[in-house]
Design a protein that fits this description.
- 81% of the residues lie in helices and 0% in strands.
- The chain has 209 residues and is mainly alpha-helical.
- It has a domain of 136 residues: Four Helix Bundle (Hemerythrin (Met), subunit A) (Up-down Bundle).
- Helix 4 runs antiparallel to helix 5 and helix 4 packs antiparallel against helix 7.
- The radius of gyration is 24 Å and the shape is elongated.
């Protein structure tokens, strides 16, 4: 009799151990994403170091000043920097809780990113057509690896951007979507910083060397 009487109480006590709402540690996502960015920094540090070691090995082939079009690269750099500015506008609209302007600025950011990739692919196609492919020399192997890795990151960033736009359009600026947009913002600006290093060290110093 007593066991039967206490059964509902025990069941009620047990239910206290289960959380029905979403459990997400405060700032856990951003911390994990910062750790990921640090690992990406190591990858690009290795690629920059590799380029520094073999970037002058032309194997009697063309040098940077024979290949690089600084005006085209400057235009490409502007595309990526503009995309960073427009993403900043998207984050400002997100802070104001305005869904439609946020999506518009994200779309503009994606268009600038696509323009950057298009110019980079044109450059790669032109170099390969001129016989300056990655197999031509150690310099070109390092160049295509470093710049191509950055381009792949931008490609993944655009895919991520499109997915987030779909999520925001469907669910609005929820807490989860705000965290995701903040993480993508960190990633996008990180790619800008890396590209500034590529433009300065690979293109500009290569032509002036």
């Amino acid at each position: 009799m007593s066991a039967t009487a206490h059964a509902p109480t025990l069941a009620g006590d047990a239910s206290r151990f289960y959380l029905r709402e979403e459990h997400h540690p405060q700032n856990g996502t951003l911390l994990g994403f910062w750790l990921y960015l640090m690992s990406d920094c190591l990858i690009f540090a290795v690629l920059f170091a590799m380029y520094g070691v073999v970037g002058s090995n032309y194997a009697a082939g063309p040098a940077p000043k024979d290949l690089f079009d600084l005006e085209l690269v400057a235009l490409n750099t502007a595309m990526l920097l503009f995309s960073s500015i427009t993403y900043g506008f998207a984050m400002l609209e997100m802070a104001r809780n305005r869904v439609r302007p946020t999506l518009i600025w994200l779309a503009i950011t994606g268009l600038f990113g696509l323009a950057f990739l298009g110019i980079e692919l044109y450059e790669f196609h032109h170099l390969i057509h001129e016989g300056a492919g990655p197999q031509r020399s150690a310099f070109l192997s390092a160049f295509f690896t470093l710049v191509g890795t950055h381009g792949l990151h931008v490609s993944f960033g655009i895919v991520w951007l499109v997915v987030l736009m779909a999520q925001v359009k469907k669910h609005g600026l929820t807490g989860a979507n705000r965290r995701r947009l903040s993480c993508l913002s960190l990633f996008w600006h990180f790619l800008d910083v890396i590209w500034i290093g590529v433009f300065t060290y690979v293109y500009l110093m290569g032509v002036l060397r």
